Each structure stands twice: as C-alpha cells, then as structure tokens.
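Please complete every field before forwarding. Incomplete forms are returned to the sender.

SECTION A: IDENTIFIERS
Entry label: holo-394
Bound molecule: PPS
Molecule representation: SMILES string

SECTION B: INPUTS
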Amino acid sequence: LQNNRTHELRPTSDRRSQRKAAEKHTPIPHQPAKHTPTARAERRRRAQVPVVFLKTHRTGSSTVQNILFRLGERESATFAFPHRTYQFNYPDRFRVAFVDELPEASSQFDLLCSHMRLDLPQVRKVMPENTVFITLLRDPIETFESVFRYHTSTVPAFLSARRAAASEGKPALKAFLDSPETFWDPKEPGNGLAKNPMSFDMGLNNQKWNGSWPEDLAQLEEAFHLVMIAEHFDESLVLLGALLGLEHEDLAYLRLNARAKNSVTELDENMRAKVRSWNVLDTLLYDFFAQVFWEKAGQFGLDRLKAEAEKLRESTERIRRRCVSRESVPPAELEDLLRPRQTESVTVVGFEVRGNLSLQDQGFCVRMMLPELQYHSHLYFKQYGRDMRAAPAD
Ligand SMILES: Nc1ncnc2c1ncn2[C@@H]1O[C@H](COP(=O)(O)OS(=O)(=O)O)[C@@H](OP(=O)(O)O)[C@H]1O
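SECTION C: PREDICTED COMPLEX
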C-alpha cells in the first residue's frame, strides 16, 4: 500500500528525506471493516449521496474533512481532487478546470472537500445534481486570530504588519489591528484571507458590504443543506449524521490542526472589538447562519439534539481513549505520518497513536489522527495510482 506519500509542497530534499524516514514508519493499515454486524447492515442501507464540503480556513474544517475522508475511503467514493496540490488553485475562485480527471472506472464524483474559494455554478458543473452542500463557520473573532497567526508569513498584508511590528517592537497582530488599511491592499490576490476570511471562502464580496449581500446570503442558504457551527461542533455533527445517514462511530473525531497554546494570541476587549469591526461581514455571515442552524436544530428537536450530542460525546470519548496515547504532541515528537503541517509563524500539535492495537483498530485510529496533507496524498494515490502533483514553480 502506497500510503506514506507525503505532500509535495516541501523542498525536494526535504521530501526525499521525509520519504526515507517514512519507510521506517508504520504504514497505514487497510481500512477496517465496521465493527458490528448491525453496523454493517446499516451501512449498506445508507443512501450514498454525493457531498461537497466547503473547507473554510481555520474553522475546524480539517476535522470535518477527516470524517468525510474516512467515510469516502470506506465506501470507495470517487473524490473530486484538485489537479495540483491539496487546494483548488486557492485563492482563485473555483473553476471546473481545477479538478483532476474522473477516473475511468467512475461515473461521477462523490465527494469534494479540498480547500477552495467557492463558485457555486462552477462546483455544480462538477458534481451530480443531488449533491448535498455543507460547510462550517466559526466565531469570527476566533477565526481571524487563528487565520492571522497561522498565515502571518503567507498573506502579504499580515507579513507587512509583521515587518512593521518588528521595527516597532510590537506584536504583529496588534500592529495590524491598529491600522489594518495601512497594510491591506485589496487588489493583491493573496490578501483574500486578510479581511472577512470566511466570507472570502464562501465566494462573497469580502471587502465591503454591497447591495447584493442579502441576495447572496439567501442564495447560499438555499444551496447549503447544512452550515455547521464550530462552537456547537457535536450538535453540528449530529445534524450532519442525520443528513448523511451516519452512525456515531462514523462521526468520532479528534480536534485536528490545533495550535500549541503558545501560538495563540490572547485578545483583550480592545483587540476583540478591533477584530470584530475589521471582520464585520464575517460577523454578519456567522450570525445569519447561526440563526439558520438553530432553526434546523429546532426542526430536529432541541431535546433530541441535546441527547444525541451527549451520546456522541460519550462514544467519541471512548474511541479517543482507545486510540490516543498522547494529545497535544509537539511536531518534533511526532512521526512524519502523523505530523501536521507547520507554518513559519505557529506550532501545530498532533496525536500519538496507542501501541499494541489490533491491525483493525490501528487502521481506524491512525486515520482519525491523520493530518490533512497525509490523508489527501494517500487518497489521491489510491484513486489515481500516482503522486499528487506539486504546485508549478513560480
Ligand atoms: N472539533 C473542533 N471544534 C472546534 N475547533 C476545532 C475543532 N477541531 C479543530 N478545531 C480548531 O480549528 C482550527 C483549525 O482549523 P482548520 O482545520 O479549518 O484549519 S486549516 O484552514 O485547514 O489550516 C484550530 O484552531 P486554533 O487552534 O485556534 O488555530 C483547531 O483547534
């Protein structure tokens, strides 16, 4: 099984040494069968609708993507993967041309869940008519703080702020928030995430409110069957499970792609107000879909949702105890297969898998903690029999 393929976005020498190191590591065991006969029977009955998951930045989206990756792999779904790398030419708006070919043996794509900036009509051209659309939003203040810290050296506006801050001896985020307009050039394509990042990912005008916003929101509400809310993650997963016919075990998760505590900036009230005001459209977007979320929750039944979320938490906790020997593990202590992507500006922590697991449990547990890039390359290789392509050299 060619399953230790690591993503191709690192320098070749780094990749080569990583490959070499990877040979020494535990390969990803085969995808295990479900555990109980009843579960197997249930699974056969699940209506396998195609799914698009709009993977918004720094919202908890890798955790949801991991659930979908596991589901798709188990059901031999055909993934609509980017032609290159693990993103659809981000930050360009999604286009059909960004999608890799439909494998010969497949008649349609079943799952699309790699990073993109949404363009609904274009996505609809790629996916079957009965596709279910889902996404995830997070409190805009938390999201922006995380986006800023994670992408400080890749988003030009943030990088300029960091340089200015260094000369003034200030924290970069404070320098940015004191005068964001000084650093933010709206014409610079790489600045998409610098203001209202969730609105940007949803394909909205993230620069300023305009007359089309209400209509655009209404269209998104119509298109998306479920917009999950990170602050109510378990309740969101219960609704996702109901929508896709999934069991609690399918929805078990670990908090992936989390920053180490020392990579998080504590915001005082003054900074929170500044973040809120700079990202006012994200607040509008979030509040709108939070309301939609609670309407859906009401239709499901609030008491039922609460009880189901509690059961999900319990089953997830059991699975976590079975799988994880150590949480919040610094990258240097993780094997390559389980090390999340790091950026220049933050430390991202991961998980250590328990030893002495049966092969079946090992397959299940490793997948649950597999970082985005490793799982993406594994599935890409499985689907196409070749490595994921690297980004073109500039
Ligand atoms: N289950 C759950 N609930 C709430 N929050 C969660 C969850 N899982 C992941 N996270 C937090 O989401 C942040 C990572 O988001 P993404 O995976 O979307 O990031 S990325 O854009 O793919 O890099 C990252 O946030 P920060 O740690 O604040 O940066 C994760 O801690």
